[in-house]
Specification:
Length: 269
């Protein structure tokens, strides 16, 4: 088990002037995919109990759907983070490379922190052995929204309208360059079957098709990482693939933010 996820809550204890901190849940897994999936599920679980989603709750009265004065809205921010597919991919790559993930979401009377990291995250992952890395395939194709909606409905029977706002409009092959067979890109996580996901499959110049495939989850990467591709995919595994586009996103996500106070450097004793 090489990845740890946690949900923290911190807020004032009324009438005491003190602040209480609680760990709401923890999870261990060998896979960054499963670590983020658990964290996203917990975020939605907390959001639904704090405030039912107006878009999916039929018994919510109309008056409750009206806009209110701007203030911290933890449930909405939790849902946005959990359902943002691009943000999830960046988060997955961040913890895979050994950087801890912190997502801080304030609410009116509490602050929630979503945390995920690789065990011993302070130690950088060792480089792959020479000759075992490969560039990721750069094949792309458009994802027709109607066809994707039909595939999702066929797989899980329903889909919330706001979920489709996070659906991809283009597929980018996640396999290694010069791979055998069709291109493939992960396009949707199943709510009802977390061991599988929906993948787009295509050949250059052919019509896109969709297929529900089990996760590979084969361990063996740096620090025993698990593969994030589908079962029985063309080799190599995900940990041996190099994607310059994802590297650029990671550099942006990890870059210091000038609008935040920087921790002062400690002088050696």
């Amino acid at each position: 088990m090489n990845y740890r996820s946690e949900i923290h809550a911190e807020g004032p204890v009324y009438g005491t002037g003190h602040t209480a901190h609680h760990i709401l849940g923890t999870h261990h897994t060998i896979s960054p995919v499963l670590a983020l999936r658990w964290l996203s599920g917990q975020a939605l679980h907390i959001a639904d109990r704090l405030d039912p989603d107006p878009a999916s709750t039929p018994w919510l009265p109309p008056a409750a759907r009206q806009a209110t004065a701007p203030e911290p809205d933890g449930p909405t921010d939790l849902r946005i983070w959990a359902e943002d597919r691009k943000e999830q991919r960046v988060a997955r790559e961040r913890i895979k490379t050994g950087h801890p993930l912190f997502v801080v979401i304030p609410d009116r009377d509490c602050t929630y922190t979503l945390f995920a990291c690789r065990h011993h995250a302070d130690a950088p992952p060792p480089p792959p052995p020479p000759g075992q890395t490969m560039h990721q395939c750069e094949a792309t194709t458009a994802v027709p929204p109607v066809a994707l909606l039909v595939a999702i409905l066929a797989g899980q029977g329903r889909v919330l309208g706001n979920d489709l706002g996070y659906a991809p409009t283009r597929a980018r092959c996640e396999l290694g360059t010069r791979h055998q067979g069709e291109h493939a890109d992960h396009v949707w996580d199943w709510d009802h079957e977390p061991t599988h996901a929906l993948w787009a499959r295509w050949n250059t110049g052919s019509v896109l098709r969709y297929e529900s495939l089990p996760w590979c989850e084969t361990a063996g990467g740096p620090q025993n990482d698990a593969c994030t591709l589908y079962w029985n995919h063309p080799h190599p595994h995900a940990w041996a693939l190099h994607d310059p586009e994802t590297d650029a996103l990671l550099r942006k996500a990890l870059a210091p933010r000038p609008d935040l106070p920087q921790r002062p450097k400690q002088e050696p004793n």
